[in-house]
Design a protein that fits this description.
The chain is α+β, with helices and mostly antiparallel strands. It has ten helices and six strands; from the N terminus they run H-E-H-H-E-E-H-H-E-H-H-H-E-E-H-H. Its main location: membrane.
């Protein structure tokens, strides 16, 4: 008995500390959590960087439509000794003969026509940019679903903590009442001991739920890149469901909005351009080249010629045609493989579309089932609440035992926690359905 009293005292001190700590808690709304995730989540940042890379790739600087301009310059220096021995004359010995030359040029190369390969490659890069945006959207959707699942788990545990606090408070009142009854000889010590055991059990359940709540809050902090050991916070426990008619409209348009199907559309467009790019190998290429050059040469005198200096400059240009009449069948194989790849993309889209229709049907069934359970649990809570209040009156009047009252208390506890679970399970099922219909980022959570 003495040991139980100490445990109750420790738990009471712990709860008093929590009460004072809650005065400084901040409230993170759903909108704030989403904004923080979009700003700080590492997965979303990486996805946005991938989009930026794709945007750079689809720009004019990576299109192949611009010419290449190169500059060249060079210098040569010679220092020689020369001995000239003519057959009918006197030998000429020259020491330290210097000669040098300098050159510089600017060269331009441009492909006028490459069988339209460059044109279709540019179009393909545009499609790849759109694909990268869809991939980023998929990352954001997955992150939002993970975020809201964690957010609503915090909300559920928060409400469970409130329920357990109410249960503990009632159990403590029962201990006080049992102690008074024992002191005045109205009951035996067993009633007091049973009441204290129930307090201890309720206290342990509350401590465990608080620990789960704190752990889940840390998980959310990691997802939002917040300080894990920072100031405590609470969340908004309000849950609103989308009207049935609006949800049905979303389902009707699911195949035009689902991000996976949209990505497959972009992949098919890219593959179609791959076929055209491969066919460009059948056509010739026409290249244009031009340059402006400057040269300077200085040579030393010889036995037969005087030294000279020569400077030249000028422009030159040309057009060349290159037509690979037969490449051993490589181009033909590339075209055939590209066509087969396109057929595979079509088959893959049909397969994914079929799976998504199934997933939507399953998600809708899960959502409707959980929503029904939620409504049933609301009625169940109302019934158990009425039963508990009646049992409490009867217990206070001494008409039922503490065991019967405890059973009514446990039934109400189970009903309220089951209601919390059903409510948030239904909301998460709704979010999963919204993701499949492509509307997760378009509605107010």
């Amino acid at each position: 008995m003495e040991r139980s009293g100490k445990l109750i005292l420790v738990i009471a001190i712990f709860f008093m500390g929590n009460i004072f700590a809650q005065e400084e808690e901040e409230v993170i709304t759903k909108e704030e959590a989403i904004a923080l995730a979009l700003e700080r989540n590492y997965g979303i940042e990486i996805a946005e960087n991938e989009v930026e890379i794709a945007e750079n790739n689809q720009g004019i600087l990576n299109s192949g439509y611009l010419p290449s301009v190169t500059g060249r310059a060079g210098a040569n220096y010679d220092l020689n000794n020369r001995l000239t021995e003519p057959e009918d004359g006197e030998a000429l010995d020259q020491q330290g003969i210097e000669s040098n030359s300098y050159n510089a040029s600017v060269n331009l190369n441009y492909t006028l026509f490459d069988g339209l390969g460059r044109f279709y490659n540019y179009k393909s890069l545009k499609e790849q940019y759109d694909l990268s945006k869809l991939q980023a959207r998929e990352t954001i959707e997955n992150t939002m679903l993970q975020l809201m699942t964690m957010y609503y788990e915090i909300a559920r545990l928060t409400e469970n903590v409130e329920v357990l606090e109410d249960v503990l408070e009632t159990s403590k009142d029962r201990v006080t009442r049992a102690q008074y009854q024992f002191d005045y000889g109205q009951s035996n010590n067993l009633v007091v001991l049973n009441a204290r055991v129930d307090v201890n059990n309720d206290s342990v359940n509350l401590l465990q739920t608080r620990q789960q709540l704190n752990n889940t809050k840390r998980d959310l902090n990691v997802l939002l890149d917040r300080q894990i050991t920072g100031k405590d916070f609470t969340v908004d426990t309000t849950v609103n469901f989308i009207p049935k008619l609006q949800l049905e409209a979303f389902i009707m348009e699911a195949e035009t909005n689902n991000v996976s199907l949209l990505q497959l559309d972009r992949n098919m467009a890219i593959t179609a351009y791959d076929i055209k790019i491969s066919k460009s190998g059948y056509l010739p290429t026409i290249d244009l080249s031009g340059s402006y050059g400057w040269n300077y040469n200085r040579s030393a005198a010889t036995a037969f010629f005087p030294g000279s200096r020569q400077t030249t400059d000028g422009i030159s240009g040309g057009v060349s045609l290159n037509w690979n009449l037969f490449d051993g069948g490589a181009t033909s194989v590339q075209v055939q493989n590209a066509k087969i790849n396109y057929e595979n993309q079509e088959l893959r889209k049909k397969q994914v579309a079929l799976g998504i229709r199934r997933d939507i049907a399953n998600a809708l069934g899960n959502y409707e089932n959980r929503l029904y359970i939620y409504k049933v649990q609301e009625e169940n809570v109302a019934t158990n609440q009425d039963n508990f209040e009646r049992s409490q009156e009867q217990f206070n009047l001494g008409r039922i035992t503490s065991i019967e009252f405890r059973q009514a208390q446990v039934n109400l506890l189970d009903a309220r926690t089951s209601l919390n679970l059903a409510k948030y399970d239904a909301k998460i099922a709704e979010l999963e359905l919204l993701q499949l219909t492509g509307q997760l980022l378009n509605i107010e959570l």
